[in-house]
């Protein structure tokens, strides 16, 4: 039996990891330990660890490195605490490998901790580009520390190989977060209305805006987005931003803009309710990667604001706009036109199978290097 640890840092990755963790937990070939820290353990950011515990995994370790505020210095301090705590958790659990997803600063700290303590790394969603966020360079740094690469698209796999990673370590598995599109336990409109305390009168727009941490337009985005919302009558369900530098200001503006009866702010919907919203919403708005990765799986139109996701592949569901209220509003009106989503359903290649079983098969056949040395292609 192979011991494997999986790191979740909040709502943004648990929906991606849930299916794979469930498959690992149900397999007799693996002993799973879930490391949950940061936003995952904070009520202020949705405490997604409660959803992890609801899956009844045997080994769950809670860690607390959340920054006290949203300054860059406090984020650096949180990264330091994450490095220490994850390193200690790995030394205690002694897994044969650590599975990481994506690009956040806590994930980079986990990769560094694993490198120092000698734990091989498997990495999901490497090779992608999000030029408007500091996450971009963190993702590529994690790729250079990882030993197994589970890419969402062939283009990303090719980029990983171009970065010097051995071709035999790179596999295309698709986007595992889209496995949620196959779930049969998602809440319906009535269930979502009961949770939100508000009628979801069409059209319904799901809004998520995160700090654009590597762009000059970042400070303007929330004002322009809210101004666009004021121009387009709709029911707006706003999920508040993650704990990135300058997130507090975005939260304040968005909370102030959410006036009843047709606007509501939530810290987090949770992965079941979030995917339920993706099914019944008429559009997405903001700068979340979900609009480019998960929304196409249910043919949901997405208006992507600014350059936070610059460089990431797009499907036909995405309309990109500059940070300009008039342009954003025009795009929202366009995607809300009657029949637009039906057209998308006929045009998009919707997922036909789940990624998690493929990921688990690859992990089962993988022999984590020990000691975890890297072999550079061409070396």
- Given helix and strand content, the structural type is alpha/beta
Q: Work out the helicity level.
A: 40-55%
Q: Give the oligomeric state of the chains in this entry, treating copies of one chain as homo and distinct chains as hetero.
A: single chain
Cα-based radius of gyration, to the nearest Å: 20 Å
The count of helical stretches stands at 14
End-to-end gap: 33 Å
Strand count: 13
SSE series: EHEHEHEHEHEHEHEHEHEHEHEEHHH
Characterise this structure.
With 379 residues, the chain is an alpha/beta fold. Helices cover 40% and strands 16% of the residues. It contains 14 helices and 13 strands. α1 (11-26) packs across α14 and α4 runs parallel beside α5 (135-145). The mean pLDDT is 93.
Describe the secondary structure blueprint for this structure.
Blueprint: E1 2-8, H1 11-26, E2 30-37, H2 49-54, E3 60-63, H3 72-93, E4 97-101, H4 105-117, E5 121-124, H5 135-145, E6 148-151, H6 154-162, E7 170-172, H7 189-196, E8 204-208, H8 218-231, E9 235-239, H9 247-257, E10 263-266, H10 271-280, E11 283-286, H11 290-293, E12 302-305, E13 318-321, H12 325-335, H13 340-347, H14 356-365
Parallel strand pairs: 1-2, 1-4, 2-3, 4-5, 5-6, 6-7, 8-9, 8-11, 9-10, 11-12, 12-13
Helix pairs in contact: 1-14, 3-4, 4-5, 8-12
């Amino acid at each position: 039996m192979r011991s494997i640890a999986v790191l979740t840092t909040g709502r943004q990755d648990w929906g991606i990891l849930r299916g794979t963790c469930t498959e690992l937990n149900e397999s007799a070939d693996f002993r799973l330990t879930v490391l949950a820290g940061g936003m995952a353990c904070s009520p202020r950011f949705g405490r997604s660890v409660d959803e992890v515990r609801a899956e009844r995994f045997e080994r769950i370790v809670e860690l607390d490195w959340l920054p006290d505020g949203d300054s860059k210095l406090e984020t650096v301090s949180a990264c330091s605490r994450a490095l220490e705590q994850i390193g200690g958790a790995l030394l205690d659990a002694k897994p044969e490998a650590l599975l990481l997803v994506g690009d956040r600063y806590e994930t980079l700290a986990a990769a560094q901790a694993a490198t120092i303590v000698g734990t091989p790394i498997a990495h999901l969603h490497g090779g992608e580009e999000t030029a408007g966020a500091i996450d971009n360079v963190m993702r590529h740094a994690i790729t250079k520390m990882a030993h197994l690469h589970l890419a969402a698209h062939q283009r990303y796999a090719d980029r990983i190989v171009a970065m010097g990673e051995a071709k035999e370590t790179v596999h295309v598995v698709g986007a595992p977060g889209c496995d949620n599109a196959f779930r049969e336990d998602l809440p319906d409109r009535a269930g979502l209305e009961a949770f939100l305390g508000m009628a979801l009168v069409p059209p319904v727009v799901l809004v998520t805006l995160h700090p654009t941490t590597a762009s000059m337009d970042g400070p303007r985005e929330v004002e322009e987005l809210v101004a666009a919302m004021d121009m387009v009558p709709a029911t707006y369900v706003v999920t508040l931003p993650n704990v990135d530098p300058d997130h507090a200001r975005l939260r304040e503006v968005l909370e102030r803009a959410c006036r009843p009866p047709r606007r509501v702010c939530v810290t987090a919907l949770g992965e079941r309710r979030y995917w339920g919203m993706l099914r019944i919403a008429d559009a997405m708005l903001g700068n979340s990667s979900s609009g480019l990765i998960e929304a196409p799986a249910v043919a949901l139109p997405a208006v992507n604001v600014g350059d936070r996701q610059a460089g990431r592949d797009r499907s036909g569901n995405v309309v990109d706009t500059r940070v300009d209220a008039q342009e954003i509003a025009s795009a929202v009106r366009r995607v809300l036109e009657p029949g637009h989503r039906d057209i998308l359903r006929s045009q998009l290649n919707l997922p036909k199978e789940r990624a998690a079983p493929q990921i688990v098969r690859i992990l089962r056949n993988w022999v984590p290097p020990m000691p975890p040395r890297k072999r550079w292609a061409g070396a």
